[in-house]
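User: Teach me something about this protein's shape.
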Amino acid sequence: MTSVLTLTRKELKHYFNSPMAYVIIAVFLLITGWFFASDLFLNDLVSLRSYFAIVPLILLFIVPAFTMRLLSDEKRQGTLELLVTSPLSDIEIILGKFLGGLIFLATMLGLTLVYPIVLSQLGELDWGPVIGGYLGLLLMGASLIAIGLFSSSLTANQIISFILAFFIGFVFFLLGKVVGVLPAWIAPMVNYIGFDMHFNNIAKGVIDTRDLLYYVSLIYLMLFFTLQSLLNRKK
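Assistant: First, the predicted structure itself:
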């Protein structure tokens, strides 16, 4: 565990020593702030509905942008071979990089906590959906980080890594949107595979173990694929 935390700290240092990280955070806050302000000042609504509606879509672009380098950059610089032959195990490398990305995401989402705090001062705010919404965003974001980590393990090109991560994440995002046009026999299965149903349930403040299990399983699956990708490089 010490090795994992050491690598996590290294990843966080890389994030916050890079101008790109601050650009990503600034863009995220500007877009989400605009939707928050639109509801508050233009529509006169004490609600985070627009915020929770738009953030999943924003994460599809934001998360691949800060995960595309996790392993791709190591490959490009030729340091991946050193990393995988170091005393660190492949699992420790994957967990360290995943946790670094997750803490970066949590920090970014944490900066928007000012929105519900402001709303609570202006009117009566139902904190159940707010807590559920943030939990849903964190779980979805964690899934996208795992997808991004897997994508970055496949190529040394960060642009290709970004495109792969975006494409895979977009498929999961889109599945819940097309359920209405699918045959009845396959719609429930497609709906379960997609992000929509699980995020919407949690965002309502309904914490169902089936939704939690979905995200945990998806994260595990993508990290497992990443492990296999690293192991294949050693053959």
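Now, about its shape. The chain has one domain: 2-233. The radius of gyration is 19 Å. If you'd like, I can walk through any region in more detail.
User: That's plenty for now, thanks!
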